[in-house]
Known about the structure:
The complex is a heterodimer. By secondary structure, chain A is an alpha+beta fold. Chain A is built from nine helices and seven strands. A five-stranded mixed beta sheet of chain A has the order 2-1-5-3-4. A two-stranded antiparallel sheet of chain A has the order 6-7. Chain B is an alpha/beta fold. In chain B, α13 runs parallel beside α15. Chain B is globular. The C terminus of chain B is likely disordered. The interface between A and B is large, with 62 and 72 residues.
Amino acid sequence: MSIQRKFSIFRYNPNTPDVKPFMQEYVIEEPQSMTIFTALNKIREEQDPSLMFDFVCRAAICGSCAMVINGKPRLACKTLTTDFSGTITLMPLPVFKLVGDLSVDTGAWFRHLSLKTKAWVHTDKEFDPNAAEERMDNETALLIYEAERCIECGCCIAGCVTANIREDFLGAAGINRVARFMVDPRDERSGNEYFEVIGSDEGAFGCMGLMACDDNCPMQLPLQLQLSFVRRKMLAFGLSK
Amino acid sequence: MSNYTTVITDVLVVGAGLSGERAAIEAASQGLDVIILSLVPPRRSHSTAAQGGCQASLGNCAMGKGDSTDVHFSDTVKGSDWGCDQEVARIFVETVPKAIRQMAMWGVPWNRVVAGKKVLPDGREIEDTKDKEGLITARDFGGTAKWRTCYTSDGAGHTMQYAVDSIVIKMGITVHDRTEAISIIHDGETCLGVVARCLKTGELRIYLAKSTIIATGGYGRLYGASTNAIINEGAGMSIALDTGLVPLGNMEAVQFHPTGMVPVWILITEGARGDGGYLLDKNMHRFMPDYEPKKKELASRDVVSRRMIQHIRKGLGVDSPYGPHLWLDIRHLGAKHININLREIANICKNFNGIDPVDSLIPVRPTQHYSMGGVRTNKDGYAYGLKGLFSVGESSCWDLHGFNRLGGNSLAETIVSGWVVGKKVAEYTLGAELNYQYSLVQDFAKKQQERIAGLISGKQGKENVFAIRKEMEQTLMDYVGIFRNGPDLQTAVDRLRELHQRAGRIGLKTNGKWASPELTAALRLPGMVRLALCISYGALTRTESRGSHAREDYPKRDDANWLKRTLAYWKEGSDLPQLQYEPVKITELPPGDRGYGESSASSAEGKK
Ligand SMILES: Cc1cc2nc3c(=O)[nH]c(=O)nc-3n(C[C@H](O)[C@H](O)[C@H](O)COP(=O)(O)OP(=O)(O)OC[C@H]3O[C@@H](n4cnc5c(N)ncnc54)[C@H](O)[C@@H]3O)c2cc1C
Ligand code: SF4
Ligand code: SF4
Ligand code: FES
């Protein structure tokens, strides 16, 4: 049994600012089950090849396809149309620069985040190709991986009040990124160095703790825990200064 | 009109996956100016989707004891069904342990050895010893004599790409993402760079460089059902082929992964079988031991895929609206193991199929997965045919994999070839000069501009790009699959020739302005059909079975006539590739029995 499904989709191309943003409606056949990925491709191939959106892995692992679906930021590739009744409204993620229609430039934003938080392992050690690796406790490896699982999709940023009003706020993804390096024994940064990176309103202290981010993360990262972990560390460090 | 934005650099890397970024780091660390182009932000490259892991003969875990570069070498050569370049395989196995440790240094949280006794799902008891505790551990993968696949839970590709990209960011290497190389600029002898199209604005740009590296990944999406990311359309291979000078090697060697999940074809990693999962038929019978008593579910991928199809053809598959499939069973691994070590699999099953593998079976069928063929290079990564052009990673035919790649050997190849070839590129570039005539360079850009104008005006015709594309996908699915035969392959070649003609008559429905996605698709499609023809025609011509290339009408490996590599060239205006052959270099391990699979039994006789 297939039904007709109506989509209401945001249209705007920043290259042609004279044409103001508008919502466009499309109706397609919906088979038993279909993801928004399948639906959007169907619309592009059968009705409107000018429609812009981004998918890469279509398996919820690359973070390309976040958009606001009926009011909530989600990964479009793993969202089933059958989760909704009636018209499905698709908007691009806020905060990020719009490329066109549903496509936003999360890549540039996250590269900036990495630069700001200096998100690489800081070490003075030289790599010795002939030496065995340094040992690490497996529990520690798992702990690092837990934070490293962020796919930079931007859902937590798009749904965050602070990020929507403060352009420089790094959001939960930024704080989580710092937490990832804090638990990594290979990173030799001191508390002071982390404080410079994140101990300001742009970082851990800009957050108003409303926790929209935690709810929106498709990877189910424990953002709430990470936020309080980093804050505790920063507070302890700030007080001891 | 003729003033194109022109960017000049020392080294231009086309592709920001693991192999491209690793090569870029190597070149940049020698003080060279490097620019990376990519369709998507680097961390969205297909490499991040690899879950299973990366082979390196560290020999730290209990089941890896006694492993060595020699054992890894012999597994790789056997896996390739003696199609690989053994000099390359040797370089590879010797470098990969170092490359893995370097990844550890750069931040990859590899899972580590935990000392203690463990019972495997099949009842065997093993013990990880105290002296190895905390070193990098490994899991079992198909076609390997030892447990050799290093992993980070089920996010190996993700953590490796993030680590490598963190070094790219730290070094300040320039990345132009959402930029697509659409043509290679050359003067007939030397590669000078590329013409690229900006996928944000549609602008055409010229990139000039002393050396250019193709690192654009595989072509999985030529097939209608593929585990690959949707951007894996073989773009880098096709622009190399279009030079008419650079050949693609062994394009008929296409890997099908045994466990693509029906019906979305998302990969269920080999780690699932490595960790003890097995395959069941419609009678809940575990059939693999009947065919492969020794390796069971963990024979090489080509073999397991063929056995599955063989079993389905006997009528033992499970019927579904998407055709017959088999079951993958991991329930016995338990909730804890599944939700920690195989968490991504559990998520994929839940999100895309509404099932929980802790208590449900997973529907699977062999699905297109990997491109062994690609831009043919020598062992230093130099592409044949043009100076200053190199290739690494899945887009290349460096020829580590021959006719079948082992699981876990591809991530390993990306970081090894990035490193080894990156060094060679740096050497070459330091001694090279950029000499070009700007009018020649501009002609390359103009040619692309004219193509675009033609597509927009519809002056060649009104063919629909998406319709032709669907037919191409279906042709490969129906006639160039796991089992192949002469008549089917001939049908494929005939249809694809016709599609190639039609692809020359595409006209856009939209105005094609700016970053029009319809124009993007239309620019890529003719090259994709040419790749499909290289695959089909190469397969038709190769009258033997080797690795993933299984001819029903020529079921045996034929070393006397076919111990050679196909080189496909494309002359402008032609509608078929020209095929040439070169011998496969055998330096250490002469052709023999793989120890698993069908054809090896017969070829083993010849060996004695
Ligand atoms: C689902 C899945 C799971 C896998 N799991 C494993 C595993 O567990 N172990 C293993 O060893 N291997 C695995 N593989 C294989 C392995 O992941 C890939 O072979 C490998 O990551 C390819 O890396 P790459 O750098 O060559 O290319 P990719 O990572 O595919 O990167 C290609 C890059 O090229 C860019 N690009 C493409 N065309 C152009 C163009 N025209 N202009 C500019 N840029 C362009 C893209 O944007 C991208 O950045 C898996 C593959 C799949 C499909
Ligand atoms: S808890 Fe903080 S980071 Fe998360 S959404 Fe709220 S303000 Fe943003
Ligand atoms: S923390 Fe979660 S929601 Fe935020 S970018 Fe990462 S994966 Fe997306
Ligand atoms: S397309 Fe990769 S996460 Fe959706």
